[in-house]
Amino acid sequence: MKRLTFKTIFGIAAAIMALTSCAKDETLRYYNVTMGNVVEGRFISDQGNIFNVTEQLCPEKIDTMNRVLVNCDILRQTAGTTNEYDVRLTQAFNVLAKETVAASSNPSDETLGNDPIHLEDLWISGGYINMSIIIPVKTTGGRKHLINLVFSDDDIKDNTYRFTIRHNAYGEVLGLNNGDKMLVRQFVSFPIAKLINKDSANIDLRWKGYKTIPGGLSSESEDYVFNRGYLKSDFEQVPARVTGKNIPGSMSI
Predict the structure, then answer these.
(1) Which secondary structure element, helix H or strand E, spans residue 6, and what is its range?
(2) How far apart are CA 127 and CA 192, in angstroms?
(3) What is the C-alpha to C-alpha distance for residues 182 and 39, in angstroms, rounded to an integer?
(4) Which of 72, 123, 126, 202 could form a disulfide with 160, with the two C-beta atoms 3.0–4.6 Å apart?
(5) Please, are residues 135 and 145 in contact by the beta-carbon 8 Å criterion?
(6) What value does the CA radius of gyration of the chain take, rounded to a whole number of Å?
(7) Nearest to residue 67, comparing CAs of 90, 46, 88, 87?
């Protein structure tokens, strides 16, 4: 029979105390992570819910952002409505929202770049392709990186829409002198609903990415392809493992 250690007993006691305290708590949901847009100072999730921030535990102000990923506790439903809630904001991360780049505009390869990224997560919601990406940046500060999603009408074949992620790191890539770099996480959203004017389609997404190694990323890269179905009415929640991450963050390189 496995013995219970002091640490295990303490953990069980803490869990019982938490359950007891939660029984008196009328909070509807804890740790709700979602992405959406700020309209007239209010957060509207990609699912169509309206969140009114009535309590705040983080310094970030969402009314200064346009698109944002939030972590919040849903306190109560607003009286007389079905999709409006008062929430306690615990985390808020600014999301870079960019229009896709049309290949017909003839952007130069020099401008778009062809540097690798690490695509950590990808999901579709609110008519956007949303990404959590990791890129190396100089610790002493350098040029702002460019991230773009390139699309061409010529790439539509058999109801499949092909997109390519392009990254210009301006020389801040993994390789020599990694000690002067850290890996930074950035959320990016690209609207695609106007490009895909059908109820359903297929998405083909391509990018150059860093190879992963135990404990970090390799300076070597390879080409990646991601295929999936797309429904205009579909909604994907933010991946649960985003919760609680320190952004920007660093890992070994």
Answers:
(1) helix 6-23
(2) 6
(3) 34
(4) 202
(5) yes
(6) 21
(7) 46
**Cα(53)–Cα(169) distance, integer angstroms:** 36
At 223, list the tokens. 């080409």
pLDDT in tens, the chain (253 residues): 334 333 443 344 444 444 444 445 789 999 999 999 999 888 999 999 999 999 999 999 999 999 999 999 999 999 877 899 999 999 999 999 999 999 888 888 889 999 999 999 999 999 999 999 999 988 887 678 999 999 988 778 889 999 999 999 998 999 877 778 888 889 999 999 999 988 899 999 999 999 988 878 889 999 999 888 898 887 787 875 543 333 333 333 3
Asked if residue 78 lies in contact with residue 85, where contact means CB atoms within 8 angstroms, the answer is: yes
Tokens of 10: 């303490």
Cα separation of 97 and 201, whole Å? Answer: 22
Exposed, middle or buried by CB within 10 Å (0-12, 13-18, 19+), for 70? buried
CA distances from 145 to 127, 142, 209 (A): 25, 9, 15
The pair of three-digit structure tokens given for residue 199, joined into one six-digit string = 């109820």
